[in-house]
Amino acid sequence: MSKDALEELGEERPTDYLMENILAVHDVRKTNKYSDAVMQIPSGLSALFLEECGDCILIETRGFEKRNVDSPKVETVVKGSQEGFTENLRTNVTLVRRIIKNENLITEMLPIGNTNRLSCTVMYLEGITNTKVVEEVKKRIKRINADFVLGDGMLEQFIEDNSFTLFPQVISSERPDRTASFIMEGKVVIIAEGTPFALAVPVTFFGLFHTSEDTFVRWPGGNFLRLIRIFGLFCATFLPGLYVALTLYHIEMIPTELLISIARAKELVPFPTLLEVLIMEVSFELIREGGIRVPNVIGQTLGIVGALILGQAAVAAGLVSPMLVIVASITGLGSFAIPNYTLAIAIRIERFLFIIAGAVLGFYGISLMAVILTFFACSIKSFGVPYFVPVAPKTKVNTDVILRFPIWAHKERPDALNTPNKKRKGNNVKLWISEDEEEGTDKEGKK
Q1: What Cα–Cα distance (Å) separates residue 404 from each residue in 78, 181, 209?
Q2: pTM, 2 dp
Q3: For the segment 150-181, what is each residue's pLDDT rounded down to a tens digit?
Q4: CB 188 within 8 A of CB 122
Q5: Domains of the chain: which residue ranges?
Q6: Choosing a second label site near 424 at 20 to 30 A (CA), which of 129, 160, 184, 354?
Q7: Angstrom distance (rounded) from CA 18 to CA 22
């Protein structure tokens, strides 16, 4: 505000002179659009207007309370980084940049929402990410015609390819290390302001089962954990439907001793098998939802009471059979083993479809429902990438689909992403082996 601040201006524009010589703020830029200034001022920026000048200077002066970096709440791991995203956009971008120290890591800020003008960041690695995917992501974000967009959950629904399918087409993560691995694979990451999650596209069905711990532990342990999750997916999807089909249509497949035990347990149950299973599954879903909504202090207590006391009381009252309680418990554990929350919700819905199909047509109904769902899943694309790649359609062999090879064997990026630079490791990853061999040869030669 000094009167002699512009005495040495000369022929230079006043805004450029102030930005380069007077203002002691690092992040400044100028604009000649009034709408741009109006949008940035409520976000915490300061706008400096000059008399008889068609430009204004936008100065980064944001300062507000924010949550400190804490451990992840959803994607917890035993071995690995314990840092998680926060609700502050700049903090989240910094956490990713601390991992990927590369000048080709591009960060582009885009506004979403016609009224609330929420900021989001598109991050990708230039030279590795497919440019067509980047352009498609930015096009979809810019063409969101809605007054209010809040966080990654609403943003995901606006940019996904098919909104009428159960399967998620965007993967989210609250871990900076996992987000950085998405970028290094060739994916595009979207971080929205106000939520501690990052979105990554494109995504495949098999990628939804991968976790950070698969990479941090040695490959035998990682494969074992991944197989456990796949088994949990099978139980969460098919087990109640198979139980209904077996007890209604295919009792000849049950061993005699087990069949007698099931018949004796169901003797006092007044409901048909289908209604019995539906009562148990709906009760389990109520317990799960209630445990989430109540305060954390009594949430675990409610889960234990609901699972043990209510289940035991239902068996004692003759409402359900003990065998069904075991089936429902294993089904619930299987759904908890699915690492992606959105996929877990889809599996919970599909479970009821398989129960009804098994009650109507037995194993034939379950097989028919599985074929129909697989058909729809194979028809889905996530930003141009088929959902079931590299199985359907079959592409180049990937070393990290269901089972993962040792970490040094992952020499190429996934073929489905069509990245300009497919190679991510050298031909000889363990150079120390060849160096040790050469040193051994030299010693033998000296001897």
Answers
A1: 19, 15, 12
A2: 0.82
A3: 888 899 999 998 888 889 999 999 999 999 99
A4: yes
A5: 14-59, 89-203, 222-386
A6: 160
A7: 5
